[in-house]
Amino acid sequence: MNQPDHKSILLADDHSLIRQGIVFLLEDINPDFEIFHASNLQQALESLKTNPIDLAIIDAHFPDGNSLSILPEIKKIKPEIKILIFTGIEEDKHALKYLNAGANGFLSKMNEEDEIESAIRKMLENGEYISPATQALLMNSMHNPKLINPLLSLTERELQIAKLYAEGYGNLEIANNLDVKQNTVSTIKKRIFEKLDIENLVELIELIKNN
Fold first, then answer.
1. What is the pTM of this model?
2. Start and end of every Response regulatory domain (predicted)?
3. What is d(CA 174, CA 9) in angstroms, rounded to the nearest whole number?
Protein backbone atom coordinates (compact mmCIF):
# COMPACT_ATOMS: atom_id res chain seq x y z
CA MET A 1 0.00 0.00 0.00
CA ASN A 2 1.03 3.62 -0.45
CA GLN A 3 2.63 5.72 2.26
CA PRO A 4 0.04 7.06 4.75
CA ASP A 5 0.03 10.58 3.28
CA HIS A 6 -0.50 9.33 -0.27
CA LYS A 7 -3.36 6.90 0.17
CA SER A 8 -6.17 6.76 -2.35
CA ILE A 9 -9.64 6.25 -0.88
CA LEU A 10 -12.93 5.29 -2.54
CA LEU A 11 -16.16 6.51 -0.93
CA ALA A 12 -19.10 4.47 -2.22
CA ASP A 13 -22.51 5.56 -0.98
CA ASP A 14 -25.66 6.59 -2.83
CA HIS A 15 -26.11 9.58 -0.49
CA SER A 16 -23.75 12.44 -1.35
CA LEU A 17 -24.14 13.95 2.14
CA ILE A 18 -22.70 10.77 3.70
CA ARG A 19 -19.74 10.87 1.32
CA GLN A 20 -19.15 14.56 2.03
CA GLY A 21 -19.26 13.91 5.78
CA ILE A 22 -16.53 11.28 5.40
CA VAL A 23 -14.50 13.70 3.27
CA PHE A 24 -14.52 16.19 6.16
CA LEU A 25 -13.27 13.50 8.55
CA LEU A 26 -10.56 12.42 6.10
CA GLU A 27 -9.39 16.02 5.69
CA ASP A 28 -8.99 16.20 9.47
CA ILE A 29 -6.86 13.06 9.38
CA ASN A 30 -4.78 14.12 6.38
CA PRO A 31 -5.64 16.69 3.68
CA ASP A 32 -3.44 14.93 1.10
CA PHE A 33 -5.59 11.84 0.54
CA GLU A 34 -6.76 11.28 -3.03
CA ILE A 35 -10.50 10.67 -2.81
CA PHE A 36 -12.76 9.02 -5.39
CA HIS A 37 -16.57 8.92 -5.25
CA ALA A 38 -19.14 6.32 -6.36
CA SER A 39 -22.92 6.48 -5.93
CA ASN A 40 -23.68 2.90 -7.01
CA LEU A 41 -22.05 -0.53 -7.19
CA GLN A 42 -21.21 -0.27 -10.90
CA GLN A 43 -19.37 3.02 -10.39
CA ALA A 44 -17.56 1.52 -7.40
CA LEU A 45 -16.30 -1.42 -9.46
CA GLU A 46 -15.25 0.82 -12.36
CA SER A 47 -13.34 3.11 -10.00
CA LEU A 48 -11.59 0.15 -8.38
CA LYS A 49 -10.55 -1.19 -11.78
CA THR A 50 -9.13 2.11 -13.01
CA ASN A 51 -7.70 3.77 -9.87
CA PRO A 52 -5.03 2.70 -7.34
CA ILE A 53 -7.43 2.48 -4.39
CA ASP A 54 -5.92 1.60 -0.99
CA LEU A 55 -9.07 1.83 1.14
CA ALA A 56 -12.70 1.49 0.05
CA ILE A 57 -15.43 2.76 2.39
CA ILE A 58 -18.63 1.18 1.09
CA ASP A 59 -22.29 1.22 2.11
CA ALA A 60 -24.14 -2.10 2.39
CA HIS A 61 -27.16 -1.32 0.21
CA PHE A 62 -27.41 0.55 -3.09
CA PRO A 63 -30.26 1.03 -5.57
CA ASP A 64 -28.49 -1.44 -7.88
CA GLY A 65 -27.84 -4.11 -5.25
CA ASN A 66 -26.12 -5.21 -2.07
CA SER A 67 -22.37 -4.64 -1.71
CA LEU A 68 -22.09 -8.15 -0.24
CA SER A 69 -22.38 -9.35 -3.82
CA ILE A 70 -19.27 -7.51 -5.04
CA LEU A 71 -16.86 -8.03 -2.11
CA PRO A 72 -15.35 -11.25 -3.56
CA GLU A 73 -14.98 -9.53 -6.95
CA ILE A 74 -13.25 -6.52 -5.36
CA LYS A 75 -10.77 -8.82 -3.63
CA LYS A 76 -10.07 -10.54 -6.96
CA ILE A 77 -9.44 -7.21 -8.68
CA LYS A 78 -7.28 -5.87 -5.83
CA PRO A 79 -6.35 -8.55 -3.27
CA GLU A 80 -4.42 -6.03 -1.13
CA ILE A 81 -7.26 -3.49 -0.84
CA LYS A 82 -8.83 -2.79 2.55
CA ILE A 83 -12.63 -2.55 2.74
CA LEU A 84 -14.68 -0.84 5.44
CA ILE A 85 -18.44 -1.41 5.32
CA PHE A 86 -20.06 1.81 6.58
CA THR A 87 -23.78 1.29 6.88
CA GLY A 88 -27.00 1.80 8.76
CA ILE A 89 -27.95 -1.91 8.91
CA GLU A 90 -27.77 -3.77 12.22
CA GLU A 91 -24.24 -4.74 13.18
CA ASP A 92 -25.30 -7.72 15.31
CA LYS A 93 -27.18 -9.30 12.39
CA HIS A 94 -24.92 -8.51 9.46
CA ALA A 95 -21.30 -7.74 10.44
CA LEU A 96 -20.01 -11.31 10.36
CA LYS A 97 -21.36 -12.14 6.91
CA TYR A 98 -19.65 -9.04 5.45
CA LEU A 99 -16.37 -9.86 7.18
CA ASN A 100 -16.72 -13.45 5.99
CA ALA A 101 -17.19 -12.21 2.41
CA GLY A 102 -13.96 -10.18 2.47
CA ALA A 103 -14.53 -6.88 4.31
CA ASN A 104 -11.81 -5.78 6.75
CA GLY A 105 -14.14 -3.77 8.97
CA PHE A 106 -17.79 -3.05 9.66
CA LEU A 107 -18.90 0.32 11.02
CA SER A 108 -22.40 1.52 11.90
CA LYS A 109 -23.51 4.95 10.73
CA MET A 110 -25.22 5.25 14.13
CA ASN A 111 -21.83 5.76 15.82
CA GLU A 112 -20.65 9.12 17.09
CA GLU A 113 -18.33 11.14 14.86
CA ASP A 114 -15.24 10.48 17.01
CA GLU A 115 -15.79 6.71 16.79
CA ILE A 116 -16.22 6.93 13.01
CA GLU A 117 -12.96 8.88 12.72
CA SER A 118 -11.22 6.42 15.02
CA ALA A 119 -12.42 3.48 12.91
CA ILE A 120 -11.17 5.10 9.70
CA ARG A 121 -7.80 5.80 11.34
CA LYS A 122 -7.53 2.13 12.36
CA MET A 123 -8.35 1.02 8.82
CA LEU A 124 -5.65 3.33 7.45
CA GLU A 125 -3.02 2.35 10.03
CA ASN A 126 -3.73 -1.34 10.64
CA GLY A 127 -5.89 -2.41 7.70
CA GLU A 128 -8.80 -3.50 9.88
CA TYR A 129 -11.44 -2.28 12.30
CA ILE A 130 -13.32 -4.62 14.62
CA SER A 131 -15.72 -2.84 16.96
CA PRO A 132 -16.33 -4.16 20.50
CA ALA A 133 -19.77 -5.36 19.34
CA THR A 134 -18.29 -7.31 16.42
CA GLN A 135 -15.50 -8.68 18.64
CA ALA A 136 -18.23 -10.10 20.88
CA LEU A 137 -19.94 -11.61 17.84
CA LEU A 138 -16.67 -13.23 16.75
CA MET A 139 -16.19 -14.70 20.23
CA ASN A 140 -19.76 -16.01 20.23
CA SER A 141 -19.29 -17.49 16.76
CA MET A 142 -16.58 -19.79 18.15
CA HIS A 143 -19.33 -21.46 20.19
CA ASN A 144 -22.12 -20.90 17.66
CA PRO A 145 -20.93 -21.45 14.05
CA LYS A 146 -24.37 -20.38 12.75
CA LEU A 147 -23.35 -16.77 13.36
CA ILE A 148 -20.63 -17.03 10.72
CA ASN A 149 -22.42 -19.50 8.44
CA PRO A 150 -26.16 -18.86 8.78
CA LEU A 151 -26.84 -21.73 6.35
CA LEU A 152 -26.19 -24.04 9.30
CA SER A 153 -29.52 -22.86 10.76
CA LEU A 154 -31.42 -24.46 7.86
CA THR A 155 -32.86 -27.97 7.91
CA GLU A 156 -31.61 -30.45 5.32
CA ARG A 157 -34.73 -29.90 3.16
CA GLU A 158 -34.48 -26.09 3.48
CA LEU A 159 -30.84 -26.17 2.45
CA GLN A 160 -31.68 -28.44 -0.49
CA ILE A 161 -34.33 -25.99 -1.71
CA ALA A 162 -32.10 -22.97 -1.07
CA LYS A 163 -29.40 -24.49 -3.29
CA LEU A 164 -31.94 -25.19 -6.04
CA TYR A 165 -33.05 -21.55 -5.94
CA ALA A 166 -29.39 -20.52 -6.14
CA GLU A 167 -28.98 -22.71 -9.22
CA GLY A 168 -31.77 -20.77 -10.94
CA TYR A 169 -34.74 -23.10 -10.49
CA GLY A 170 -38.21 -21.63 -9.92
CA ASN A 171 -40.97 -22.75 -7.54
CA LEU A 172 -42.66 -25.05 -10.05
CA GLU A 173 -39.40 -26.68 -11.17
CA ILE A 174 -38.35 -27.28 -7.55
CA ALA A 175 -41.78 -28.70 -6.69
CA ASN A 176 -41.61 -31.10 -9.64
CA ASN A 177 -38.00 -32.01 -8.88
CA LEU A 178 -38.75 -32.86 -5.25
CA ASP A 179 -42.27 -34.20 -5.89
CA VAL A 180 -43.95 -31.77 -3.48
CA LYS A 181 -46.67 -29.16 -3.87
CA GLN A 182 -45.71 -25.74 -5.21
CA ASN A 183 -47.20 -23.94 -2.21
CA THR A 184 -45.04 -26.15 0.04
CA VAL A 185 -41.96 -24.82 -1.77
CA SER A 186 -43.24 -21.25 -1.37
CA THR A 187 -43.75 -21.78 2.36
CA ILE A 188 -40.25 -23.22 2.78
CA LYS A 189 -38.79 -20.32 0.76
CA LYS A 190 -40.41 -17.85 3.16
CA ARG A 191 -38.98 -19.77 6.12
CA ILE A 192 -35.50 -19.78 4.54
CA PHE A 193 -35.59 -16.01 4.05
CA GLU A 194 -36.73 -15.48 7.66
CA LYS A 195 -34.02 -17.74 9.11
CA LEU A 196 -31.27 -16.15 7.02
CA ASP A 197 -32.64 -12.60 7.49
CA ILE A 198 -32.54 -11.89 3.76
CA GLU A 199 -35.03 -10.27 1.40
CA ASN A 200 -34.35 -11.66 -2.06
CA LEU A 201 -32.74 -14.43 -4.13
CA VAL A 202 -29.64 -12.33 -4.91
CA GLU A 203 -28.76 -12.28 -1.20
CA LEU A 204 -29.46 -16.02 -0.97
CA ILE A 205 -27.14 -16.76 -3.89
CA GLU A 206 -24.37 -14.68 -2.30
CA LEU A 207 -24.75 -16.44 1.05
CA ILE A 208 -24.50 -19.85 -0.60
CA LYS A 209 -21.52 -18.74 -2.72
CA ASN A 210 -19.65 -17.40 0.31
CA ASN A 211 -20.28 -20.31 2.71
1. 0.71
2. 8-124
3. 45
Inter-residue contact 53 to 79 (CB < 8 Å): no
Question: Which backbone phi and psi does 82 adopt, to 5 degrees?
Answer: -105, 135
DSSP 10-62: EEE-S-HHHHHHHHHHHHHH-TT-EEEEESSHHHHHHHHHHS--SEEEE-SEE
Please report the sign of the dihedral spanned by the C-alpha atoms of residue 76, residue 74, residue 150, residue 128: positive
Q: How far, in Å, CA of 93 to CA of 140, rounded?
A: 13
65, containing H or E segment: strand 65-66
Which of 104, 97, 39, 105 minimizes the C-alpha distance to 68? Answer: 97
Domains of the chain and CATH, by start: 4-142 (3.40.50.2300), 149-210 (1.10.10.10)
First to last CA, the chain: 29
| Spatial strand order in the sheet of 105-108 | 34-38, 8-12, 55-58, 82-87, 105-108
Secondary-structure breakdown of the chain: helix, strand, coil percentages, each rounded to the nearest 5: 60, 15, 25
